């Protein structure tokens, strides 16, 4: 059977009757499902990735992997399931002359939170008004105040450890509720910086080192244990002290949500009025294409900021805005590494526990990006692991007591500050579809166009200067050669490809995530962001998902 202009052979028709079908079981899809199921609406959650998520096996994969990287625990999830991009350009195709887009995501039940770090600061009020304040970027169709309560709900749901006093009213970001948990203890290394640098001025800003709000348990919370401090938060927390979206998948299922894993949505089909009337997905377990009739129902797209626009483009939806796939953003990262005069004793506790947030806003944003600094608690991270230190010394001919001393003296003094810089939304930074290359199930691969611009380069340079001065104040010797400032890493913060706004000429969705052109289609996730700010995106995306769920709940209540 062919549907519309598609030549898809449909083998099956989904028979169950749902109020809402959600595509993507990451945090945004799962939290939306839970909030809808709480009100007894019938929800179907469709997930492309595998449902086989054995945490112990994943942790074991990581422990035994020779090359340790964020994807290594999930190798057993099977080909086709973690078809998240890699850095060798096998999944994303880059336009000629594009710089490399370096961020990744996971296709698996629970999505990318399986390997997120778990830093969850809020956006600042200024992040929503970048154009009004600094004449760059664009303004959101909502303010910080519009989502402040949703932030509180998201923090309760996720389980965020943070210091209310430290963060309340910080840069104008008021908090109407306390964090559900006190902050995670700050690492010993942080105390070296707190003692020597707090209150000092660096490039005209007074430095304040704050405990970063974290999606990890400071105490037992929501049936999960307190953080045990063994430093493998990325790519996996073996004991689930760190939040991941399987928490909300479980809660949604307990409230009646149906979850189907191994189901890759291939296309959404609309009628003449722009309503989404059919979803077609491939059930990998049966290898059959299945159709769901969504007439009169609500569809929520929660497939993250590459797959969401990809599916819209492939389905020919939201075309009037000409914004689908545009404004792709990330937080471009660099780092400064140093050897401290006094030991900082890394590797005890989460990968980072403290940050410097004073550079997240300032007049310079009309010229270059704001940035957040994170103090690392994992030595030099992947730049030089303790194993590399050992190897280098062995190769230099050291052995016995001298070898042991050289390695331990270096490792306990290795310190790192990384900086995540703001990107501006640009229409040329985009996701489009390949005309020639398909993925393994015949959907065009995403083509990325991405530019590392002056706005980012200047921010990286400025942030590096800041780090150098902080290290000087803290008696640390910077290794400029091993630091990274003229190139960048991706932060995994993929944002902006289906932005929200006031009308279909300038945006894809409204401030509630409802698609201007297709009123029964909602989008949740960082793809709806208008600007990137400098805060890690997931808390804001979760808060916006809760806002979207509230709107859908109202709509469904009115219909019943
Ligand atoms: C290494 C790393 C570290 C990070 N650290 C942080 C951090 O410290 N703090 C922070 O805030 N953020 C962090 N992030 C970003 C964070 O992980 C994401 O913002 C967040 O997980 C996005 O959630 P989501 O639900 O929108 O998307 P995802 O979690 O990616 O979920 C989307 C789901 O949709 C499914 N899907 C995709 N296409 C289809 C389809 N066609 N049919 C059906 N299902 C589909 C996918 O399989 C996936 O499960 C990090 C990311 C990485 C990579
Ligand atoms: S430090 Fe260990 S226990 Fe704590 S969140 Fe990270 S991985 Fe989990």
Automatic annotation (TrEMBL):
Domain Glucose-methanol-choline oxidoreductase N-terminal: residue ranges: 207-332
InterPro entries in UniProt: FAD-dep_OxRdtase, FAD/NAD-bd_sf, GMC_OxRdtase_N, GMC_OxRtase_C, P2Ox-like
Domain FAD dependent oxidoreductase: 19-49
UniProt keyword Flavoprotein, yes or no: yes
Position of the signal peptide: none
Cofactors (names): FAD
Keywords: FAD, Flavoprotein, Oxidoreductase
Record Pfam families: DAO, GMC_oxred_C, GMC_oxred_N
Domain Glucose-methanol-choline oxidoreductase C-terminal: 425-544
MF term (GO), any: oxidoreductase activity, acting on CH-OH group of donors
Keyword check for Signal: no
Family of this protein: Belongs to the GMC oxidoreductase family.
PANTHER family: PYRANOSE 2-OXIDASE
Protein name from the UniProt record: GMC family oxidoreductase
Native organism: Flavobacterium rivulicola
Organism taxonomic ancestry: Bacteria, Pseudomonadati, Bacteroidota, Flavobacteriia, Flavobacteriales
